[in-house]
Design brief:
With 230 residues, the chain is mainly beta. Helix content is 10%, strand content 49%.
């Protein structure tokens, strides 16, 4: 899709105690069955393009790229783009995601300014925009915390949920820079979580409405398969 594609994988395979670090989740979500998100793209299933399957309930395909350029060691531009098609298998409902993010930053005296444009996806059905997914840097970081926190929202029609990146694992002493996964919140309650470090998987609370299940599935693909510039 874009020039200068960088070999950036969504799953960073951060290890904790000799195994892949799993994101911290609430006890309610941990108790729910895991729905694997299987991909068949290149680079061990997580490359530039491919297809995916969420436990047989949702299927689809994606195409994504990440690129960057620097001039005079001062001005840098980055781009991350993705297009995905998500279909619910029991009724054929289909959503299209068109996503982009990045921006231009200027380095001056060792400090970098700009380049933090939100990562945004327009969500459409039958060529009509019905919602959006947007993530941007969050101010949740504390002193000496290396995590690059993000927070945002996913919406389809009248349904919406807050989305936050998760950088903490019960297997690790400290937070990590890249997200281990993302949590979906309704108010202050965590109702779903998608693990993006290692095998991709989704857990949701039981008895959610069909509309919320659809929203979480779309938001999970937007989160798990986003391909950001370094």
């Amino acid at each position: 899709m874009k020039k200068l594609i960088l070999p950036v994988l969504t799953a960073t395979l951060i290890s904790g105690c000799g195994s892949v670090a799993l994101m911290t989740k609430t006890s309610e979500l941990k108790a729910q069955p895991e729905m694997l998100i299987k991909t068949d793209g290149d680079f061990w299933g997580l490359g530039q393009e491919g297809s995916f399957d969420i436990a047989g309930k949702y299927t689809g395909k994606y195409d994504r790229s990440s690129s960057g350029s620097t001039w005079f060691n001062t001005i840098s531009t980055t781009e991350g783009d993705m297009v995905a098609e998500i279909t619910r298998t029991d009724n054929g409902n289909t959503w299209i995601l068109v996503c982009s993010g990045g921006g231009t930053s200027v380095n001056f005296g060792g400090l970098s300014f700009g380049g933090n444009d939100p990562y945004r996806c327009d969500i459409s059905v039958d060529n009509n925009t019905v919602g959006e997914y947007e993530m941007k840097p969050s101010s949740a970081a504390i002193s000496l915390d290396v995590a690059k926190y993000e927070a945002g929202v996913v919406r389809i029609n009248n349904e919406h949920l807050n989305v936050k990146s998760v950088h903490k694992s019960d297997d690790l002493f400290m937070t990590v820079e890249k997200p281990l996964g993302y949590v979906f919140e309704q108010g202050t309650q965590s109702i779903a979580a998608v693990q993006t470090n290692g095998l991709l998987s989704l857990q949701t609370l039981p008895d959610l409405s069909a509309d919320k299940q659809d929203l979480i599935a779309v938001g999970s693909i937007a989160s798990a398969l986003s391909w950001r510039p370094e």
